[in-house]
Write a structure and sequence with these properties.
By secondary structure, the protein is α+β, with helices and mostly antiparallel strands. It has helices spanning about 70-75, 95-100, 125-150; strands at about 15-20, 25-30, 40, 45, 55-60, 80-85, 110-115. It folds into three domains: about 1-65, no CATH class; about 70-120, no CATH class; about 125-150.
Length: about 150
């Protein structure tokens, strides 16, 4: 497998193959910066005959099928259908929420749990308490600002 040097493609980019020709794949790029841009991916021939008596040549498209991604990779993306496989509880604060909120419609989000009926939503109490304190401080500031305006009127 080799990387291509095309301006609109990079390693790990998601594409949808629209048409498959003998020596060319026509693909639609599925990324915000190049959304729906059409690109072509040529078949690459590699010579594997170094130090061998019989020359060997291999032709392939430098593309691998991908049907899964990590929760981190899915963050910020929206998908039509989502299947979340949870072997064990997710260990980072908010990660389960990120996974569950990737689908366009809740009806198209499915969760697969191995040998259990539930999973834990890991919550970091110190994170929540600092956010709660921040919100309370904002409310206190807003109340103080309103009272100051009332006094001035």
């Amino acid at each position: 497998m080799r990387n291509l040097n095309l301006p609109s493609l990079c390693n790990g980019m998601r594409i949808i193959v629209e048409e498959l020709l003998d020596n060319l794949k026509v693909a639609r790029i599925n990324r915000t910066a190049f959304r729906n841009e059409i690109t072509t991916i040529p078949r690459i021939t590699m010579n594997l005959s170094e130090g061998e008596d019989i020359p060997l040549q291999r032709s392939q498209f430098p593309v691998q099928s991908c049907f899964a991604m990590t929760i981190h990779k899915a963050q910020g993306q929206t998908m039509d259908n989502v299947l979340i496989e949870v072997e064990r509880p997710v260990i980072q604060h908010g990660q389960l929420y990120v996974a569950l909120s990737r689908g366009r419609r809740k009806e198209n989000v499915r969760v697969f749990l191995k040998d259990t009926q539930s999973t834990k939503n890991v919550v970091i109490k110190s994170f929540l308490s600092s956010k709660l304190q921040q919100r309370q401080n904002e409310k206190i500031f807003l109340l103080t600002s309103e009272r100051e305006r009332e006094r001035q009127n």
